[in-house]
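Practice record 12: protein with hexanoyl-coenzyme A.
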Amino acid sequence: MQEIIQQLEDRRAVARAGGGQRRIDSQHKRGKLTARERIDLLLDTDSFEEYDMFVEHRCTDFGMEGSKIPGDGVVTGWGTVNGRTVFVFAKDFTVFGGSLSETHARKITKIQDMALQNRAPCIGLFDAGGARIQEGVAALGGYGEVFLRNVLASGVIPQISVIMGPCAGGDVYSPAMTDFIFMVKDTSYMFVTGPDVVKTVTNEEVTAEQLGGASVHTTKSSIADNAYDNDVEALLQLRRFIDFLPSSNLAAVPELPTSDDAERVEDSLDTLIPENPNQPYDIKELILKIVDEGDFFEIQESFARNIVVGFGRMEGRTVGVIANQPMVLAGVLDSDASRKAARFVRFCDCFGIPLVTLVDVPGFLPGTAQEYGGLIKHGAKLLFAYSEATVPKVTVITRKAYGGAYDVMSSKHIRGDVNYAWPSAEIAVMGPKGAAEILYRSELGNAEQIQKRIKEYEDRFANPFVAAERGYIDEVILPRNTRRRVTRALNMLRNKKTENPWKKHDNIPL
Ligand code: HXC
């Protein structure tokens, strides 16, 4: 028996060595951890149960029969993050560049199936060169199997991808179908085709960083949700992130004990809104002051900064926060902001996470650039997402809620459950100046008269009371009591049950 046990240990040691010390050293030299080191950091100590450690490829082309490495370029299994089960696969770049073979794909699909069956998040750590070139169509077939499972699991369990090295081909399409993508700055890249192919086809010369680095995908393409300085930070932030997420669409949101009093009064909020309605203020101050312990996990912080989205907790339970940001473009809704917020709202709705919407929006951004870029369709995405959402929805209008953007931002008319306004709220078709200039165009030459008209419009509409008189606003609340009022509303809504009419699926304006 001792001999057999020793054999097992020896075989395990070979598998754990992956592509060998030389390639491990090269991985470290580039500032990257190995697949197993990453899993160790991500999961609770000693919680990892590895599967399929001895799986090898079956390729016999290009001399591959003589080059087999147990594990075949991906480490798979399950473990816990702060006590909660997650399934994980980590590409091992030291083995055939983490490229995907038929057997490598089988290892991943086994984990995807187990995650779905057992209703737990599935996390992929990517550092790979795409389809194993020597395997041809067998590798492409393998990707197809992975992609299909990404889609079937979408909206059932959270799927998260972390890009921790160069990723090309199939290794970008699978992450693209997951819920969140995080990247590591300077060492990770995502592109369908790399710089060499780009040069051949388009004659364009770009570096990997310019083509698909973290800076590109977090600020320009919005493919990635966040970027971190190194592997360690990315994995520690991922652990923090998982604490916010329910395990599946059937599980309740996680509850973390908190010492932050739900009744906490924040006097400073009474002076958050500047006297001048055109002066900006930082909406993040409001978010940090109302969520538990100021703990807010922002998503897509560097993209479409005119809207802020992310996760916080109220009385220990996760909420999704969506807030116009007056500091950037006056908080206007444009195509990018609408798409960003719509995707976030839909994620929260899939997983039963209540929505807290903070509104200060002067409308949709006018201009040819926006109209040609499809503002109508992108704006409609957000309107659609809020309208179909059946999770509890609590809205607070702090200042402006103008025009179509008033309707879109979780208004009462699209099933906002509890809609509050601060006394500083202005709910109108447009700002007083614009309104007076349209209504009294013939008086435009008379500055004094126009000022009078603006004042008239302000007095009539630049307040929350016209909407409150109609019941579109449930209550005008004191800013300092916002945390208390929102928490109480969320408590009241805990057993909310609303269903949309049966359909195969909706047809959101993609
Ligand atoms: C087999 C691969 C491989 C691949 C890398 N390797 N990619 N082996 N199939 N796709 C191997 C290399 O031979 C090398 O082996 C080791 O991995 C490390 O690769 P290097 O090139 O030395 O590393 P680096 O310079 O860091 O470059 C990494 C890279 C580059 C950018 C990923 O290797 C690369 O461009 N690979 C090809 C990418 C690609 O075009 N993939 C196919 C995409 S098509 P040794 O033995 O020397 O360590 C696709 C189809 C699916 O994925 C599409 C579905 C929609």
